[in-house]
Amino acid sequence: AHLDADQRGRIAEIVGLGAIKYADLSQNRLSDYVFDWSKMLAMNGNTATYLQYAYARIQSIFRRGEVRPEEIREARPAIQLSNPAERALGVRLLRLPEALELAAAELKPNILTDYLFDLASAYSTFFEECPVLKAESPERRDSRLALCDLTAQTLKFGLSLLGIDVVDRM
Length: 170
Hints:
There is one protein chain. By secondary structure, the protein is mainly α. The protein is built from eight helices and no strands. The mean pLDDT is 91.
């Protein structure tokens, strides 16, 4: 889909602000600080842009499949974790409370950024290895859509705690 100038400008602002905030918060507060634009805006590596892209990619799966995330939430499909990439993603999703508790206890937001990066990396592997819309059965498709939605919700929530927005398209 083509984005008009206003949409591009809004996305650029969200991505740019997110990049700066995330680069700041992902540093261990006890380490030396290095300001680096190219690292901040990279589409891969531990950056807000990478996490925002993972979120946008999930939204695009729902658009392509013509499914609303709310439909999957209401259907509450059984989650199937037979593929190692599905299992790895499921385990990461379950670790959110642990990451939040540790980040709060140690006053280190970089623990949350590390968790979110690990989650997005696990999602990327899942995305490569597990067809979602072309899954082998409707049950598997809905299970994988549910994993996608849980990942998107977790990324959005985690980034919001850091004061960073997400976008549906990039």
